[in-house]
Amino acid sequence: MAFLPPPRSVAWSHQDARSGFEVAFFHPRRDGGYDIEGSTAAAEDGRHWIVDYAITLDAAWRTRRARVTSRSGANAARSTVVEADGTGRWRVDGAAAPHLDGCLDIDLESSALTNALPVHRLGLPVGARAEAPAAYVRVLDPAIERLAQSYARVPDEGSHQRFDYAAPVFDFACRLVYDASGLVLAYPGIAVRAAD
């Protein structure tokens, strides 16, 4: 089942791991891709933070560019720009980042939105599984890491696609539920979609 185009805006309420909210806006591009602007504000482990992001996707939902700006407490805002060539080569703030070779997606620790990127890009049929390493941006750490993760599509539930997601480095696994546009509805322990 192909996904419908994303809505102009979408929001999530964070749960369990943190309390907060995320809002994202989709802007279609002439080349068939999207520019996405979003922001997350949250409280977690006694810290308060805000992350603003601008992500450019090509028509295949591969990340081509992202600017991520975070602020926490009295710290000054920190901004990072990552760029990708669409074939798995990355630059971070203008410098080559060979440790990210082979990644096609960005994954923001602060965001439920970025789990939509590999699902769209992969187009997995029911029963298929794929590795989807990502350029991982933490909220309070300036280093961009390589995050090993996988998605396995399980039978749909009505119009909702479902995927078993795993990120072994965090010893984390859950079942993600997506709407007809391929955006996360339920991310157990992390976020749920806010009412439209």
In short:
This is Glycolipid-binding domain-containing protein. The protein is mostly beta strands.
Q: How many E strands?
A: 17
Stretches where pLDDT is under 50 for at least 5 consecutive residues are none
- Individual helix count: 1
Distance between the termini: 23 Å
Across the major sheet, the strand order is 8-7-6-5-4-3-2-1-17-16-15-14-13-10
Derived from helix and strand composition plus strand pairing, the structural class reads mainly beta
- Which band does the percent of strand residues land in? over 45%
Protein name: Glycolipid-binding domain-containing protein
InterPro entries: Glycolipid-bd_prot_put
Organism: Streptomyces marincola
Pfam family, one: Glycolipid_bind
How would you portray this structure in words?
With 196 residues, the protein is mainly beta. The protein has one domain (9-193). It is 4% helix and 54% strand. The chain is built from 1 helix and 17 strands. It has one helix at residues 116-122, and strands at 9-14, 19-28, 34-44, 47-57, 63-72, 78-84, 90-92, 95-96, 105-108, 129-131, 134-137, 144-147, 150-157, 160-167, 172-178, 184-187, 191-193. A 14-stranded antiparallel beta sheet has the order 8-7-6-5-4-3-2-1-17-16-15-14-13-10, covered by helices on one side. Strand 14 and strand 15 (172-178) form a beta hairpin. The protein is globular. The two termini are 23 Å apart. The model has no long low-confidence stretch (mean pLDDT 94).
